[in-house]
Amino acid sequence: MLRILGRTSSINVRKVLWTCHEIGIDYQREDWGRGFQSASSPEFLALNPNALIPTVVDDGLVLWESNTICRYLADSRRASHLLPTDPRSRAQVEKWMDWQATELNGSWGYAFHGLSRHSPEHQDPALIQASIQQWGHYMSILDRQLASQDTPYICGDDFTLADIVLGLSIHRWQLTPFDKPELPHANAYYQRLIQRPGFVTHGSIGVA
Q1: Which of 47, 109, 113, 129 is a Cys-bridge partner for 122, taking CB atoms 3.0 to 4.6 Å apart?
Q2: pTM of this prediction?
Q3: Integer Cα distance of 51 and 49 in angstroms
Q4: Who's near 99: CB < 8 A, 6+ residues apart?
């Protein structure tokens, strides 16, 4: 059985759990990370030298990096409804997954840790504001993309892995306490995503 190592309050663990829900994968989850078994322990480092969650073990295969894990699960279980086999369609899904992991994720770190997690190391008002502005910039890109297409999901009419990773990112945006610009298309998209049973079960656990 698939083993998922990581606490459910982690946004990246929740990507994997939501993916498993959409595919119907049985798994055994183990609490690792902040507040649980240490990801810096020799046992964990033998699986993932980065000491980060999630890490999964599937029939002897060890994987880390949450978006890679989601792709692998869709591929290995032939869930082409989440990750198309057609190269052009697949590239669109992976484009938005990579954008989420790099540009969008890279923008929110300081503001999220300062405002939601109240980290003492993230309390510089200027740096918080800079992070908010950058975060808003990328969310505006997403809003404009959704406005430009008449489809319910980011890659068209069908729900895909891109919607899982973006949905959790928008959830973090919504819950982090600061004044936000009007993003009607992103907000409507978010409302569609949070109705899915996979989000209801796994998406809102923890602090954003």
Answers
A1: 113
A2: 0.96
A3: 5
A4: none
